[in-house]
Amino acid sequence: MTPRAFTVAIDGPAAAGKGTIARAVAGHFGFAHLDTGLLYRAVGALTLDGADPIEAARALDPRALEDGRLRTAEVAQAASRVAVIPEVRAALLDFQRSFARRPGGAVLDGRDICTVIYPGAEAQLFVTASAEVRAERRWKELRDKGDDRTLAEVLADVRARDARDSEREAAPLRPADGAMLLDTSKMSIDEAVAAAIAHVAAKGGAPRA
């Protein structure tokens, strides 16, 4: 018997914890996981190399998702810039929708999974936190990697990215109607993961046998 499809869609701004939560949910239920932001980061990285963003998106090789630069702040900013281009979003749409309905269950996290990529997802969450909390998380990550930017500079970057993501014409960042709002500002990782798992289970998600 082919395993049934079950989609968990998780949206939210940068550094809210959605990636950590998505990976934990996928691991708990045995679902496949896709960080859709990596698709945009891969395109962003290619544009830093001089590629046209639309052509880069249309010809994106899955191996580009393994680029070691994808987690850098420079690529994150490039990803945010290319993500406002409608033709880039359209080029990456089919891949994401196909992944969402793969047999055995899937967890996708990004900016517009619930609102655009797969509004029919059985479980939908919007993970957020205050800009100050998210900036401090990101600043600590960067500091541990040797980045010497100040907390104030990182906060400015977070707010600028929030503005681009929420004000863009193509698929602006916003909670979907009916999505569970999970504010992690004052939650531990374990608490946030437990709340997300409980929500998915309540929507009919079950660990793979």
Can you walk through the features of this model?
The chain is of the alpha/beta class and 209 residues long. The chain has one domain (7-201): P-loop containing nucleotide triphosphate hydrolases (Rossmann fold, 3-Layer(aba) Sandwich), CATH 3.40.50. It is built from nine helices and five strands; from the N terminus they run βαβααααβαβααβα. It has a five-stranded parallel β-sheet, sandwiched between helices. The longest helix is centred in the C-terminal third of the chain and has 17 residues, at 151-167. The model has no long low-confidence stretch (mean pLDDT 93).
Provide keyphrases for this structure.
209 residues; alpha/beta; Rossmann fold; five-stranded parallel beta sheet; 5 strands
